[in-house]
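Structure first, sequence second, as always.
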């Protein structure tokens, strides 16, 4: 049985007066991609932000490698080996690709240099546009840069929020290939609306609806369950 790397235990989160997460519980296991899926406004992105400490958990526990992290600051969580790729990428558009990578590095040692080399092999376009300003990159290239910034460090757990939003199918396929490579050395928690992407990389799924987990299981079970897809994700057979 795979080791549980991160466990969310009945997490509640508020944004102002709005009760966004209402007891969200899930596990992310080693050697797996855990997908959080659901309609817009279900609480998926808020779950990732709560794990990273960007939104405070008012109740519940988040345990990473046996240590509670729900009260830690985002920078402390990042230094524990958790990387975060936000929905809007979080890159510096006025800096070059090279400068973006340098800013992201927590250390400048041989191990980081090796990870950088491997990352540039995975995302060849970043090497090609190394001296270009990030703002001049295409949408897909910006997403690659956002992911590259997160994995250049010693990242044990990678949180990725909606990486395919607005991207062409050919770029989505490139991201699928990249995430399947990343999962070999990092646990991935992916928030994704694109069911093709989610089902192509996901091992385990949790469906969120109105701030609660309403279904979970193996991704293959969800792929085969058209009724569940229709009920919680709005996917009809004709949309396939």
């Amino acid at each position: 049985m795979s080791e549980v790397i991160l466990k969310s235990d009945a997490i509640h989160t508020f944004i102002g007066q709005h009760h966004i997460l209402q007891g969200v519980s899930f596990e992310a296991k080693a050697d797996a991609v855990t997908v959080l899926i659901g309609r817009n406004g279900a609480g998926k992105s808020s779950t990732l932000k709560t794990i990273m400490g960007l939104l405070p958990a008012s109740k519940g526990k988040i345990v990473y490698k046996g240590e509670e992290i729900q009260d830690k600051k985002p920078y402390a969580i990042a230094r524990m080996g958790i990387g975060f790729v936000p929905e809007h990428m979080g890159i510096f558009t006025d800096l070059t690709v090279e400068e973006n990578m340098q800013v992201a590095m927590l250390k400048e040692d041989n191990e980081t240099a090796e990870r950088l080399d491997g990352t540039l092999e995975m995302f060849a376009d970043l090497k090609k546009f190394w001296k270009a300003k990030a703002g001049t990159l295409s949408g897909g290239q910006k997403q690659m840069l956002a992911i590259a910034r997160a994995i250049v460090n010693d990242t044990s757990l990678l949180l990725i929020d909606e990486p395919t939003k607005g991207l062409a199918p050919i770029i989505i396929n490139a991201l699928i290939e990249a995430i399947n490579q990343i999962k070999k050395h990092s646990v991935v928690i992916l928030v994704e609306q694109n069911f093709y992407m989610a089902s192509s990389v996901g091992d385990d799924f949790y469906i969120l609806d109105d701030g609660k987990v309403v279904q979970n299981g193996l991704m293959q079970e969800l792929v085969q369950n058209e009724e569940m897809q229709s009920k919680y994700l709005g996917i009809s057979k004709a949309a396939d």
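Margin note: Residues 1-81+202-235 form a domain with the Rossmann fold fold (CATH 3.40.50.300).
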